[in-house]
Amino acid sequence: MHRMYDQQNNFDSNGWLVLGFCGSQPDIADSYTSTGSLYMATLGFLPLGLPEDDPFWINPPADWTAKKAWSGQAFKKDYHVEY
After folding, report:
1. What is the pLDDT of residues 49-77, one digit of tens each?
2. CA of 13: how far to CAs of 24, 29, 79, in Å?
């Protein structure tokens, strides 16, 4: 992770993440990938900003939807979201 994120060329002149594995490498990106995709990929780090007493950290582990579905457990059906 340090090799990817410690590079000095991960952002363009406007401060946006650039396409690439390690710095700007737009030729390796898929045609449908955009700058927005890069930010969606960072959502996995979002919980690291939660305080240590947040329910995310202190509640007991829970099975996630895919795990429930593939093990035959009941799970809530997905639904559309209206903002």
Report:
1. 999 999 999 999 999 889 999 999 999 88
2. 12, 19, 39
